[in-house]
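User: Hey, my collaborator sent me this sequence without any context and asked if I could get a structure. I don't really work with proteins. Can you help?
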Amino acid sequence: MSPIPLRSRPQSKTDLLIPAITPKVSQPPKVAGSSGKAQVSSSSQASPAVSSQSISASKEKGDKSYRSSSKQDVEVQDKGTKRKFEEKEHKELIPMVRTSSKPSIIQCHSNNHISSHHKRKLRCLYMCPVNDQLFATSALDGLVNLWEVQGRGSGASLLSTTDCQSPKQRRWPEDIAWHPHGNSLFSVYTADGGESQVSVLNLNRTQGKPRVTFLEAKPHVKGIINSIVFPPWENTCFVTGGSDHAVVLWKETDAENVWKPKQLHRSIHSSAVMGVAGMWQKQIILSVGADKRIIGFDANMERTEFKHQIDSKCMVVAESKVKRV
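Assistant: No problem. I've predicted the 3D structure and written it out in structure-token form, which is a compact way to encode the shape of the chain:
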């Protein structure tokens, strides 16, 4: 029987890898009549071994080439996959071992969860500037809690709870700040509706005096006061930034709980001021806002020292706690 050409073979459902070079099997032309039959039979009888050998050889070569190519394919895929896994594992281990070439023990410490004792979401948490065992929290319930760290940070105990809501609208503190002496906490609110804008929580118990007092000055004209901070300067003062685009400097006076406000600027920011901070080296006030601007303003010279535009809204700015010599 003559071999079936490759094109007329039934195709399987799976894709096969066909070698690039396949041996061609020649067939003798058919001749009409008995002589044709004799020629066909004689040719088929004369060269059965050759044709079968060539066909079997071609099949073996094709099978070998298919097996070798598929095997090589699998090996390449396996090697590639293995390399990818090794690289991935290597990348994940780099942050753990860093630059050390020796094995090291990774210390794992447990954390503790304690109740905030607030009825609504937390708003702020700040450490005391003179005692690293004390910190204060504020929340949307209008309460300001004073805490003391227990042990080596294993827990915290609640020392006091004070209602610091504004007197008219009963607003919660938007932001709080410690006095540099660590004896009081300042809170800011809103400028809408003639509301008090700043309150002072005296942490030293004094008989006959309220713990919370509200400053009379109201320099912000509208909207929420988003930030309050005490710059690291010799003369005690604090700075506020609000939704009215204003940055205000408050200076301490000789009278108790009387602070004199001074507007530094209101037109430099085109949107709400979200954060303020003071620099160590110079009396420069940093302010950032929803307008994607970072402003450095010299409080003594009353001028803008620098201005930067970034790609997204800036919500917070903080000064370094380490003073450069």
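In plain terms: Residues 4-14, 21-26, 31-55, 64-90 have pLDDT under 50 and may be disordered. You can pass these tokens on to your collaborator as they are.
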